Amino acid sequence: MKTNKISALIMILAITLSIVGFTYAHWADTIKITGTVKMAHIKMAITSYKNLTSKEVQRYSNITSELSADGHTLTLTCEGLKPCWFIWIGLATQNQGSLPVNVKPPEYSFYDPDGFQDYFETAEYFYGPYPEETGFGTLEVWGGVKVSEDGPLKPDGGVTFETEPTSPPFIADPGEKVVMWIWIHVHTDIPDDAQDKTVTLYINIVDDIAI
To answer: Which range marks the domain in which residue 59 is found?
Structure first.
């Protein structure tokens, strides 16, 4: 009798183990998933830039520039500041992310221990957005642009492009391009102790998702 009970228990155990093994194998085969997850991101980047001013300013002021590796920040080092000093900064930008972005004016920061930034003023003009396949050089607002009293970039901060500027904020979809022109000017009342000094200016592109 004991032998029959033991045999029955062994058989039940064997059946149970086979069921468990089958269930495990079944689930192991059905829940194994292999794939790649790509996260959405926003990135408005500077792809090219220009620094333009008049011949008069070039005679007394030295201006150097450097673009950060991520394309977000343009650094300008400006020497020999005087009243009415000015520069036009052109930024060719593109939405290199996977989400639409709100195009907004850039953010400015200064490195000037003496607080000379209070004597600067700026004006911004935006053009676009343009399709991804657009070549910047083909645009009236970029290719061959010069500073002149007659325009298209005027020393007083005005522009004479036939293309009307776009008022920010506006949406740029992934791949689309935008041209920004920034006029930076020193007031006429800059104090004597601020003249001929060096100021470092940082122009930062704003990443803002369009919701």
So the answer is: 44-204
